[in-house]
């Protein structure tokens, strides 16, 4: 009978490998499974005890057991997996058999290092998988002439050194974490103390406001009396009106100057934007599939085609505006003194028209028109805030009283806001034992390709271009969360592990895409450090960040200020 | 396969899918205004008008072309003569050659005497070549031109005719009518192909431009003769009108296939309007068509002007060797049966009308009579499919773009983590430094060699993009050399042509120039393309060429190439000249290290199959595009270029999980199996997809890998006789009329595997058409389907690929999953045997080192497996060569570990062992046999354990 080469090699390799120490278990079997391989006459499939095969079928490079337990040292059963396209012939006589491996993998003894399992699909594939099998035992059949020398000495040595480092680092990380917890507790205490202080201050402020309200009321009473007792003495209504009008005109003038400055700025911005868009239109790639870009180009073309002369500079208009902006005097605008000295018994409303009649008509129209036009424009575009109601003119005493009340009310509101903020802050989830309180606002960054990525804990994430250093907000902090991440355990199985995340949303928006957002996945580490940033899909980023804050342990070490809420 | 799950979970999944489906925004369509309709293409309109005029005149129409009998000579298989075209004022002389080839093909060439002699004047002081382009064959034809020694003039020819007998056993005859000129090609006395039967032969001869005094009407409509403007670009047309046109009729044929590339059904539709028909002719003008639409005769990236006509028991074909813009009209006419002659049925004739903007008429006619013979003869001319490196038939993972070398390594590691095999990872253009080819982006790919070395650890490969546009930038060494050596395409004024593509302003390398090929070769050497290693291969994209700001997104037709040919003359072969240059470059990047190149090309022409694989370009993540990929891949296969695939998952937009899963299950049946995605899409590597989809996708990919021995054998067959790797129904059953139009199921090589991928949303079954009365077995559970000429409903829940094995086959597999195909090299085989009605089965296996050309010197294993009279045997099909012994030695330990016999004879119930006899062994041995009885509709089967016969050995297993 012909001895197949693989079997032959098995025999040879087996005899050499175990020449010195007597073979106690078949190739690839870990000590914890050796009990299944004691009987030298028959073998019972581990998960299917009903199936018995001759012991000579163990490691004969043919898969007999539906759980692969007869081939601990070969790849013959590596196809028994949910990931394989199995047929009925793989489940002899039992179509419904769930085919899963009983063993976690091929056991590499790795003398001089630590033993480990390697997936069966890597046995005798011609590749020395030193990462799992430093002793090279995974390539025992030497297929295609593959020889894997034993490298456990050097690999083991390196690993031990690294492991020592890792342990040190873990110890350091835990220390760091404790410091963070202390810090977080202290900060939380500060906030709580602050709230107590603020509550007292608010009480005081409320009393003050009440007093001032009374003062104002008194002043107003006084005022009304004054107005009643001194009707038009010495100065007529026109005088009063002229005073009002002057104030109004000054105000309008100032507003005009202000609006004009804003207009010029806006014009420049529009110009700059138009230039950007023109360049964009000539340089964009029409074949690139970006509907957003195409839509933008189309809209730009439409926009450019419209005549937008109202926004253009006009020197005649500017000249007019220059004139109007000059302060009034005898030679320009209205000569107010003349009016202020006038005394006349006409009705107020008539006077208004009269006043307007004295103003050069183009100024009246112009001022009203332009101010309204620009103001509306700016207000609509959110450049200029909408004005509050103008305060009416009052006596000094009333004004002072009112101002005092206003300022007292403001500071009261301020205090109330502060306390609200602090209370909200206390309600905010800062993670277990509020540990992230200690990290809030701390920034770390990392170079990656053409960008530098920045992460400021509980604040924002950023992408900064190295060339030109323009920066892009990748999201503002929203919440702490968890994400299940798939990892491979020692047996090579995919398991999911929950990791703490920091969610950042609503960053700068993308062309034809969502607002940028980032999920920061936290891992235990000695330093706060960005390990990796990836764009998982258009403008949706993930960042892997190490921090001592998520290292296990530390919370019970006292010094923290845990509250019931945190344990939820 | 995945176990079934609780219903609630499926319901949840289903509603999720529906929800996702609702969120998809429909309606991405091609920009029609960017591409010409026939009416906008001068010569297309002229030739269609010519046809309309002829048809309006009906019987009164007479083609103005006559063969002058006095000029006719027949010598050594060539018939020569002069056609005379009579016009109002002149008689134009058109030399004709009809060559009768040893292969049984005939070649008809018509040229123009004045152009041949250079006796014409070009306008605008053009320096263009005065001849009609006659060099397409330099790029396309590699053999098969030996003329027939036996072809003879038929002495009994009728008056006014010249008749030539040729072909195998002189069974073919060309009947050449002198006036008007026409040729009928006959096989066994029956006419199968007719040239100029409709009188649409049209060769626009050269004429000077006559400036008529104002007011004087031209006799003909000259509006498109001298100048044409489209999309803001004016074509100067220095030679004036010069198109060639010809009608080709297939009497009695009602199906025509071929002339890729179109996103359309396999059986081509009529093009002159009417319900279900196209209004435009099928166009072939290689173009970068953005967001192409389905069910359309619009041109795409590649062109193979090779058409087959098929009817019950007969296939014939024509190959129109012309590199200029070409359109084909198809009309089918049905003749009513004569009511007086009993039993006569109606007959459909398919009339096709071909026209090209420039060049000669150069037509090959194939008389079959079977699809396989057509493939073989066509392949002799244009070459067979390259036998690719073995890795190339594995799974390719691509994305625009893997953004850093670390990203690549991470994706690589993830595949291993999830134990999903793959062979090749791809880099789209972002790996380059500012889109300068042969460079690496220094910040994102600082360590390209480290990345390739990492991939090489599991025998994986890297493919990077190299395009023909060269960035116009000072200091870029490729640009500087291109300029210094004068290797760029020029414009009509003779200046270096500048256009826009990915890098912005660019010049185009002119691969028609032999000196360019050697320069291009030098650029790919490891010391010039720094950071490239031997496991790096090339993707040639944008080689139509795509020019963003050019007319129809390509070059102006009056651009000039090497040899003073206008771009108009050579456009459709432009793509393969780049592929050719790259192929030469990859053959021997290091002295003494000769390897089979791997190249993916987007643009192609006949002949590309010798050098590259193709994919169907920028498709979309829709069910429609998934469905369209099957006829497109099948059509490419029968057109001689079977190494074809579509982007799995769809290039544009995000596929939902169901679509992506079904796409993998379909994609494993593309000869070229690559997933690709647009830069704006979400990442979708298979391991990222949530369960149960990830498991299902893994199973599909592993099924591809399990069947790689069968795939490689099918590739080998294609590489020696041109038979498609995946075959459509009509090709396998050319006598079964019911199956001629079926283009949604396919056969893998000669394995008897029949797959029908699910391409419809929410489908849970597949209706597989079975042509014969053999038993067909479900691949996974051996359920039996039987019944000829009808569709059988096969369950197709999401986790299942509808796949049957026909009775009578032996399929070689490798069942052990590995990280890459390279690592499966030493694994043992499983043979799956299904018996036919006579209890017999047949199969074959081809294996070689998958890398070098040693197979050309005998370094391979080629076996025939045969089961007959209870004996399974392996016989040698190979021929010995100097490398045979060496290769066999390396494969010595590779054996058959298992034989599965589906539906074995009942007597085997009693058997428990078989006798194994291997050549060279002194004694026979026994191997255990286990029999498993039938369960319901599932066939019984038997498994032979560990016969351990050598795969390269001759052996017998006696049952």
UniProtKB/TrEMBL annotation, chain A:
Q: Which GO terms describe its cellular component?
A: glucosidase II complex
Signal peptide (residue range): 1-19
Q: Where is the MRH domain?
A: 441-553
Q: Which InterPro entries match?
A: Gtb1-like (IPR039794), Man6P_isomerase_rcpt-bd_dom_sf (IPR009011), MRH_dom (IPR044865), PRKCSH (IPR036607), PRKCSH_N (IPR028146)
Keyword field: Coiled coil, Disulfide bond, Endoplasmic reticulum, Signal
List the biased-composition ranges (Basic and acidic residues): 316-339
What segment(s) does the record annotate as region Disordered? 308-340, 383-402
Q: Tell me the Gene Ontology biological-process terms attached to this UniProt entry.
A: N-glycan processing
One Pfam family, short name: PRKCSH_1
Coiled-coil region: 181-283
What PANTHER family does the record tag this protein with?
A: GLUCOSIDASE 2 SUBUNIT BETA, N-LINKED OLIGOSACCHARIDE PROCESSING
Q: What is this protein called?
A: Glucosidase 2 subunit beta
Q: Which organism is it from?
A: Penicillium alfredii
Its taxonomic path starts at:
Eukaryota, Fungi, Dikarya, Ascomycota, Pezizomycotina
Automatic annotation (TrEMBL), chain B:
Name the Pfam families on file. Gal_mutarotas_2, Glyco_hydro_31_2nd, Glyco_hydro_31_3rd
Q: Give the EC number(s) under which this enzyme is classified.
A: 3.2.1.20
What GO cellular-component annotations does this UniProt entry give?
glucosidase II complex
Name the predominant localization. endoplasmic reticulum
Q: Which GO terms describe its biological process?
A: carbohydrate metabolic process; N-glycan processing
InterPro entries, per database record: Gal_mutarotase_sf_dom (IPR011013), GH (IPR017853), Glyco_hydro_31_AS (IPR030458), Glyco_hydro_31_C (IPR048395), Glyco_hydro_31_N_dom (IPR025887), Glyco_hydro_31_TIM (IPR000322), Glyco_hydro_b (IPR013780)
Location in or out of the cell: Endoplasmic reticulum
- Which keywords annotate this record? Endoplasmic reticulum, Glycoprotein, Glycosidase, Hydrolase, Signal
From what organism does this protein derive? Penicillium alfredii
| Name under which the protein is recorded | alpha-glucosidase
Instruction: Provide the reaction this enzyme catalyses.
Output: Hydrolysis of terminal, non-reducing (1->4)-linked alpha-D-glucose residues with release of alpha-D-glucose
